[in-house]
Amino acid sequence: MKRFASVTSVAYHLPETILTNEDLVREYPDWTVEKIFDKTGIRQRHVAAEGETALDLGEKAARKLLERSACPPDQIDALLLCTQTPDYALPPTACILQARLGLPTTVAAFDFNLGCSGFVYGLSIAKGLIETGQAKKCLLVTAETYSKWLDANDWSVRTIFGDGAAAALVERIDCPDEREPIGPFVFGTDGSGFKRLIVHSSGARGIGEAKGSLPEGRRPDRLFMDGAEIFAFTTRSVPQAVNALLAKAGMTLEQVDLFVFHQANAYMLEHLRKRLKIPQEKFVLAMAECGNTVSASIPIALKDSLDAGVLKPGMRIALVGFGVGYSWAAAILTWPGPGVPS
Amino acid sequence: MTKQEFVEELATILNEDAAKLTPGAELGWDSTGLLGVISLLDGELEMQLDVDRLRECKTVQDLLTMVGDKLE
Fold it and tell me: Could you say which DSSP state residue A148 is in?
């Protein structure tokens, strides 16, 4: 028997307020409901209310998870929280969440700042903590409210991003075979693209490099996205990352049961799917009802796939996160089931 | 992909008449055009590039020069 880390449960929570394509068309009469859906694959997004934050959404997702997996809060020994919309620059959101959830004060808790690659990174950190004997049960929360950063007049981002939070339980299991339930991983970073997806005045540098160079009408405290270059970045990095992951795992594309990519938008994902020659039935699209929820998008897609019966026990899934940074990460995840006891 | 096929694909992406896309024709980039051309270059020609290089292409000829020997 070997001790491995495994994802045993996943849950998510979306805020109540919904922004539909119909709502958007009322503000941008040049567009139609169908045209927005054709371009993005998104019908609606959930938007956090004023005063409702990633912490609030993360708390609700975590409570659902703990309830459903019948895991008492006092058994959690590590809390990993990924967000780019923390309640405060300091203290860390994870510390506040520890108190709210009633996790023991012996828990390890910290935030990490990543976007669309965050969930895969979180799995890597949790695996590291568990397989080196530092933790037994990790609560991984990815919670995001990009709506707080969006300019109401910026159509290109308002059609895409939605708020949401997901929670995953990663725990130690005794595995009869040598196949690790999480891994291998591949990572990638290219900080030369940092200005392509950025909120300029969100940190200690203030307006920083945007001073004097922001296009007319652009607010430095709102999200700037160079959509075309982000798309070009994914064509440069994602196919390579997938091929590197398969090589590292000693797998062929056919041996992967399901591909769950970061749910950026349908146009981008459909291009990547075709480019990699992934059959449609193995490729998850889960952004229609919630939009691009950044680091929460992969676990949301996993949960929706589970509920729809698409994701079945024992399946080997390729997870691929990519975006802001630029940062990307990919991993093979085996869902617990026959041969992989939880 | 031949030069002719490339220009025809480009015409579809830009919603233009292919006959009007002479080498000297000017390219007006909008986001749909950029996304379409990136998709074409990556998907058909396996050519990945920085979008700034694409934005610098002012004419059809600039684009053909950039694509270069990727076309038959």
Answer: G
